[in-house]
Amino acid sequence: MSSVKRKYVVPGDVVAEGDFRPVAHVTQHGNKFISTRVGMAEVGQEGVRVIPLSGPYIPRVDDLVIGQIVDYSAFAWDVDINSPFFGVLPAQSVFGREYSPADESLSSKFAIGDHLTCKIMSFDRTRDPLVTVSGPGLGKVEKGEIVKISPTKVPRLIGKKGLMIKSIETATNTRLAIGQNGIVVTLGPSAGVEMVRRAIRLIEEEAHLADLGSKVQALFTASESATN
Amino acid sequence: MTTTLLNADKIRLDGRKLDELRPVKIDVGVIKNADGSALIEFGKNKIIAAVYGPKEVHPRHLTKPDRAIVKCRYHMTPFSTDTRKNPSFSRREIEISKVIRQALEPAIILEDYPRSSIEVYMEVLQSDGGSRCAALSAASVALADAGINMRDLVAGCAAGKIGGEIVLDIDDTEDKEGEADMPTAIMPSLGLVTLFQLDGKLSESEFQKTFEFAIKGCMKVYQIQREALMNKYFGQSEPMQESTE
């Protein structure tokens, strides 16, 4: 992977010419591959792709997301998952197969405004994404503070094998739940949450640069020496 | 009454040469509440463009099941002209909103966002001719800032004929007193024209030359658009070469 060449691109820039496979955020015109986003272009073994630096969250099956209930009908909740599409949480997936709107009311379980940790069950371009709350770690978010990050920068917040989250958690004495949609729930002392906020802002601004880990560490040590 | 638009040395009223663009400056991300935004200063023109979306469509029945719809709003503030402009939409603004929408649509990959709408708002704070091209150029930068999949940026620039000479980038007086005005927009990397209008009379050879001038102007605007986006997102930094994921 280290042999991958990177360059900065904007929409319309030619990323590569020749016989490649388009992977993400490129369109093909003849043998030219054109970027569709502002971001970093990579030409590697697996093909041509652009890592975007801005943009909305587009759901993908099996993504963990954090959403907010905005509405409910007799059969399903509508969940705002910070995306152009609303998540649909069917009542049957919460109450079980035998659910009947006559016996149980959806508002008894989740109310409008509640935050949920959920997983994308299925999504394709013809229908809104189905989400589920059954599974370990899924369900209502009982406490914590919501911090937002641009969805395109979530991979950098998580880091290689979750290294970045771990280092932030230990340094700030907090627990983080990160949704792929850019919603982060932070749990811990308020000073720690404030530090997380600052770390996320730093990652947001410098997501395209190397050495983020040490920069975040420097932020923590600087604030530590300031309080002492 | 007529104004002399060109002096003996073929220098224009504002001191420009025949093929000279007014100074253009673009700032990206000027509106925090929008998903993407840009402010363009095209000579004396000052236009803000803001993009919202993709988001759910209102009213619902306008939804397209297989792609996104684009809503464009070009509006001039009452204080953008020398005498107060009525803030309600004029015939002209409705037309410009429509042609800008049609110029942007081929650039946006609408099929990537089914059942949603992309809203583009362009507000003219100060106008001085050529504002449709300036607004369009700003809107395309704002779309890129919003992270919407696009085949290419769209760059716009006008050319025309004044005092018998073909010139690049017509301003307000030149538009009113001159002989022809040709607003043009292109997708520069793909080499496609997305906006083309012509007001006035040109012979075939004049038409050719004016069109070539307009394309040249568009390419210059395109360079400025690219630089503005690069500057906002990357500053002076070099791309890192290791992998992050």
Ordered list of secondary-structure elements with their pairings:
The complex is a heterodimer of chains A (228) and B (245).
Chain A: E1 5-9, E2 14-17, E3 22-24, E4 26-29, E5 32-35, E6 39-43, E7 48-52, E8 64-72, E9 76-80, E10 87-90, H1 92-95, E11 115-124, E12 127-132, E13 139-140, E14 145-148, H2 154-158, H3 163-172, E15 175-178, E16 183-187, H4 190-205, H5 212-227
Parallel strand pairs in A: 3-7
Antiparallel strand pairs in A: 1-6, 2-5, 4-5, 6-7, 8-9, 8-11, 9-10, 11-12, 11-13, 14-16, 15-16
Helix pairs in contact in A: 3-4, 3-5, 4-5
Chain B: E1 24-28, E2 36-42, E3 45-56, E4 69-76, H1 91-104, E5 116-126, H2 131-145, E6 155-162, E7 165-168, H3 172-177, E8 180-187, E9 192-196, E10 199-200, H4 204-234
Parallel strand pairs in B: 4-5
Antiparallel strand pairs in B: 1-2, 2-3, 3-5, 6-7, 6-8, 8-9, 8-10
Into how many domains do the coordinates of chain B divide? 1
Largest interface: A-B, 41 and 43 residues
Q: What is the name of the CATH topology of chain B?
A: Ribosomal Protein S5, domain 2
Content of β-strand of chain A: 25-35%
Given the C-alpha coordinates, what overall shape of chain A results?
flat
Radius of gyration of chain B: 19 Å
CATH superfamily of the largest domain in chain A: K Homology domain, type 1
CATH fold topology of the largest domain in chain A: Ribosomal Protein S8, Chain: A, domain 1
Cα Rg of chain A? 20 Å
Sequence stretches where pLDDT stays below 50 over 5 or more residues of chain B = none
CATH architecture grouping of chain B:
2-Layer Sandwich
Secondary-structure element series of chain B: EEEEHEHEEHEEEH
The mean pLDDT of chain B is: 93
Count helical runs of chain B.
4
In whole angstroms, the N-to-C terminal distance of chain B is 68 Å
Q: How would the global form of chain B be characterised?
A: globular
- Computed structural class of chain A: alpha+beta
Indicate how many domains the architecture of chain A comprises.
3
CATH C-level of the largest domain in chain A = Alpha Beta
Helix-strand string of chain A: EEEEEEEEEEHEEEEHHEEHH
Q: How far apart are the termini of chain A?
A: 42 Å
